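lol forgot to send this yesterday, sorry. struct tokens for the thing we talked abt
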């Protein structure tokens, strides 16, 4: 009997945490939203630069391309460290916010595994197109994460972001043989479904509670 009562109490505490979490407008918090938005800006600018080069509007040296390939990741890692330090000083957030953070963290871990899978396939088969499927799968994973956020938050804009990621991911998978269009779709997806939602979550989290 006591075990059943404890289980009921735990379930009620979880549901209460979800309800309380609805007041947490940012989801990722101000720092996490800023990091997500910055990632969209950095990698969106990178893919845009590649798209411009693909169309022949810009010529860059091998060294410049190498710098462009690594600069967004280096900046992102620095920002991530800053966010981790800031988050440690923040008060503990509700159950829903922790679930959102866990979903993004899980997608990040999966992304690392996918890097190894697709990079190995591209090298083994000497075909760069294998690597081009990696961003497509990452986009789909982001869509799955945003579906989780929609189910937790029940906000229409989060459903639109989820659909945008999923549609963009499928489009990338179908466009691996058309690099120009592929890069434009990737650029649009990163700006529209990562940069914009990230900075939106940051602004929401920074607003004073009414």
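and heres what i got for the seq, position by position
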């Amino acid at each position: 009997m006591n075990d059943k009562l404890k289980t009921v109490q735990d379930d009620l505490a979880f549901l209460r945490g979800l309800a309380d979490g609805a007041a947490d407008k940012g989801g990722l918090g101000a720092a996490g939203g800023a990091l997500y938005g910055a990632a969209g800006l950095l990698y969106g600018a990178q893919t845009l630069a590649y798209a411009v080069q693909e169309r022949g509007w810009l010529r860059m040296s091998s060294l410049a391309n190498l710098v462009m390939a690594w600069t967004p990741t280096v900046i992102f890692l620095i920002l991530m460290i800053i966010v981790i330090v800031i988050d440690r000083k923040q008060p503990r957030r509700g159950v829903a916010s922790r679930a959102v953070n866990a979903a993004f963290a899980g997608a990040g871990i999966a992304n690392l595994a996918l890097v190894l899978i697709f990079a190995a396939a591209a090298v083994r088969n000497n075909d760069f197109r294998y690597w081009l499927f990696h961003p497509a799968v990452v986009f789909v994973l982001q869509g799955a994460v945003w579906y989780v956020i929609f189910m937790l938050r029940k906000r229409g804009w989060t459903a639109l972001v989820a659909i945008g990621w999923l549609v963009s991911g499928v489009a990338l998978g179908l466009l691996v043989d058309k690099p120009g269009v592929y890069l434009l779709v990737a650029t649009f997806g990163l700006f529209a479904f990562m940069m914009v939602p990230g900075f939106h979550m940051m602004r929401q989290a920074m607003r004073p509670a009414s």
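The longest helix spans residues 95-124. anyway ping me if u want another try
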